Amino acid sequence: MDTGIVIVGASLAGAKAAEALRAEGYRGPVTLVGDEAERPYERPPLSKGYLLGKEEKEKVYVHPADWYEQHGVELRLGAAATAIDPAGHTVTLEGGERLPFSKLLLATGSAPRALPVPGGDGDFVRTLRRLGDSEQLRAAFRPGARVVVVGAGWIGLEAAAAARTAGAEVTVLEAAELPLLRVLGREAARVFADLHRAHGVDLRFGVKVEELRADGVRLGDGSTVPADVLLVGVGIAPNTALAENAGLTVDNGVRTDQHLATSHPDVFAAGDVANAFHPLFGKPIRVEHWANALNQPAVAAASMLGKAAVYDRVPYFFTDQYDLGMEYTGYAEPGGYDRVVFRGDVAGREFIAFWLSGGKVLAGMNVNVWDVTDPIRELVRSGRAVDAERLADPAVPLDEL
Questions:
Q1: Which of 5, 133, 299, 330 is the most exposed place for a label (fewest CB within 10 A)?
Q2: Boundaries of each FAD/NAD(P)-binding domain copy (predicted)?
């Protein structure tokens, strides 16, 4: 008997999975469980348009408020799942209620990592992951406010840009010698360092944070950076506790196959929490970006309904900082490439960067250059070797390489 499909995680991935199930023609019960009081929303605006005050709150939600009732999706908000029993096909909620399921989707996402120093868990420390976080920061980012950001990753830099745009004084503290060094490598990372310095951000690299305080950050050299607002953005960790406690295979996220099925045939995973086998790369990869949460659920939904769906999309993400817009297509691991080729005006921040290995394009990043993601995606997917000189020449169309 079909006892329905339960989705744990009222996130973008969870909401899109419910949408996909109905689009696939599934008429059974669908229950979407989330521990937040807010209905499912998208996260990119939290560090971009909504944080900047350019987008209204209603714009961040995945669906209108009445969509769930209209589509027969039971939305259980403020209801944290505390356990799953794959063998017994139940999900236990806080308070003890048990929900039966025929199929289960884990869309539990990820959580900000805490800085392991004294004060790292202080209530004065801000993170940027939830809607409420964005609203608190938006209220705090004001002219003259001293904002200190620990961590020069994507979230840290986007928040720094929003704070500077609001007129705050911004200091970014980073242990590495450049921002985004692990993600982009030295050549492309310099672009973002130059960008933030040009907008008046005090970037400090190679620093060691010793202690977080309500009034600032104490560094390894004994100095203190004063702060009215202290934001920590040192990465996120997948929310795998439910899966681990249920005995599912967990390795840098919940391991799934290319159909997004976990080690139990009736349990699936999608979004940040899924470390999914990718046919194009021949190994599991976990990508912490919006495009996965947007696109994986359709495959998970089809797979739960017994269809032969495969998730093989080329990874994609984007950022907007000041007057710089960027899209990144592909997957280049640290140390997994042997060359970076630039096409265009790097100093003017209007270019494309390509990461190559053995002459093959692993990834491309277009900065203030538009309508090129399709040919970049084709270059990555093709796996063919390209001529680096032609690749660097803006006069050569990408689809002719």
A1: 133
A2: 5-296
Name beta bridge partners: 319. Answer: 326
Residue 401 · residue 391 · CB < 8 Å: yes
Nearest to 158 by CA among 125, 199, 117, 188: 199
Q: Of 246, 278, 243, 242, nearest to 260 (Cα)?
A: 278
- Around Cβ 259, how many Cβ atoms within 10 Å? 18
Question: Tens digit of pLDDT for each residue in 310-336?
Answer: 999 999 999 999 999 999 999 999 889
Q: Which tokens hold the place of 169?
A: 């004084």
Instruction: Give the three-class secondary structure for 231.
Output: strand
3-state class of 158 per DSSP? helix
- Please say whether the beta carbons of 121 and 113 come within 8 A: no
Query: Which residues, in sequence order, are bridge partners of residue 150?
Result: 173, 232
- Residue 213 to residue 216: CA distance in whole angstroms: 5
Q: Which residues contact 167 (CB under 8 A, 6 or more apart)?
A: 142, 143, 144, 145
What is d(CA 51, CA 30) in angstroms, rounded to the nearest whole number?
A: 32
DSSP string covering 27-39:
-S-EEEE-SSSSP
- Reported as a single tens digit per residue, the pLDDT across 192-236 is 999 999 999 999 999 999 999 999 999 999 999 999 999 999 999
Other residues' Cβ atoms within 10 Å of the Cβ of residue 223: 11
The gap from C-alpha 86 to its chain's centroid, in whole angstroms, comes to 27
Q: Could you give the 3-state DSSP secondary structure of residue 155?
A: helix
Full DSSP string of 82-130 = EEEETTTTEEEETTS-EEE-SEEEE---EEEPPPSSTTTT-TTEE--SS
